[in-house]
Amino acid sequence: MFPKPKSVLLPNTYAFESEPMVKATGFREYDARWLFQKEINLMGVQALGMGLGALIAELGVSQEIVTGHDFRGYSASIKYALISGLMAAGCKVHDIGLAVTPMAYFAQFDLDVPCVAMVTASHNDNGWTGVKMGADRPLTFGPDEMTRLKQIVLNAEFKNKAGGSYQFHENYPARYIADLTSRPKLKRRLKVVAACGNGTAGAFAPQVLEAIGCEVIPLDTELDHTFPKYNPNPEDMEMLHAIRDAVLHHKADVGLGFDGDGDRCGVVDNTGEEIFADKVGVMLARDMSAIHKDAQFVVDVKSTGLFVTDPVLQKQGAKTAYWKTGHSYMKRRTNEMGALAGFEKSGHFFFNKPFGRGYDDGLVSAIAICDMLDRAPGKSMADLKDALPKTWSSPTMSPHCADEVKYGVIDAVVKHFEGLHKNGVKIGGQSIRDLVTVNGVRVTVEDGSWGLVRASSNKPELVVVVESPVSAQRMHDMFEMVNSVLGIHPEVGEYNQKI
Length: 499
Prior knowledge:
The chain is of the alpha/beta class. 35% of the residues lie in helices and 19% in strands.
């Protein structure tokens, strides 16, 4: 019998080395995230592996799984603890070693393996760890699978058995890189800054971009799990400003920034201005729908309203559906709708055939951006951006809110806005035109300005985004309106950044 995990154990004690610790809040909506040693220990990770192996069998899927780990000082040890649990549950484990997350997704197809468990803290700060999991390629777990996994692990409902095995795939990255680069080279010689924040993507991004014909300016591509410059997150202004400086210094055509596990790509244009990922999505949708008639796209609720109102997309017959934020939700919806692509404001992009296999890969996104520039030989990245109708958009802003209370706060905020809408109450002198409540609440008023509030799926935070097609002042007005509603709730704390 394997012990039932405890929610809290003190480090540097007998119990910490003898019992599993797994804090329940680490099981998120679509993946798992914990502070290592504070919320989960290595025996807890082993229990997670046993639980995942049991869930895979319960789902009726062959117990064969790909695993890899990102570049953190502790990720390899966590992966081996996970592997020991998976093998105890009877799984055949295919270990691809140090990898970006999309390399593990690729390996599911390349090795013909149904399941994946990638050890990564993604863009979270050092100290965090986690696992992105799936049992139905190219999809990853959603709330149903995560809820059941949580039950199995916390109640120690393991079904361990003999038959587990382990195979290490030597030099696996070469297969992934070959898959990305076995294609015609770009006709246009693009000078590209490849920024990796000393994260995992630094081992792969520069050579992929060089192989498709780019001149690459590497920026913080040396692997260093202390992240000495900044956290590798292309939504953070510190990373975007570092890319801007490099683009301007080297007179580059574009700057591309990759997050800690390489499944997202941030963009800075040739003038040094960052382009938020939803606007990049509109640009790519314009490019792709010019080639593919009546293209269908899916975007998350944090994304710009231009996907619906852009005259070029309308003229090219493109259709767009809004859906829940979160890589698993978006991946699943893009797959279900047979959409050409899905775009998430965080930078997770999902390309179906002929562009990709349906999973999020920052390097596939980078290649799509380079191809878009290649198909517009007389135009710069700034030209393509400036051709979009003007809107004023905020970055993603995240006030602190504990995991235990954040969903209750959001429920109250949704009810508040539903009440205003039902009673015809104006906000900022304007009527509410539309409410989208598939994921928190997105409030759009008469002039097209909108504000979104939702719960973060992977951190103890809320998420706030605002946009206006009218003016910067109207964008600020929407933020003040949203912020005043959040101010009613004392559980909501300081923001990580504000406009």
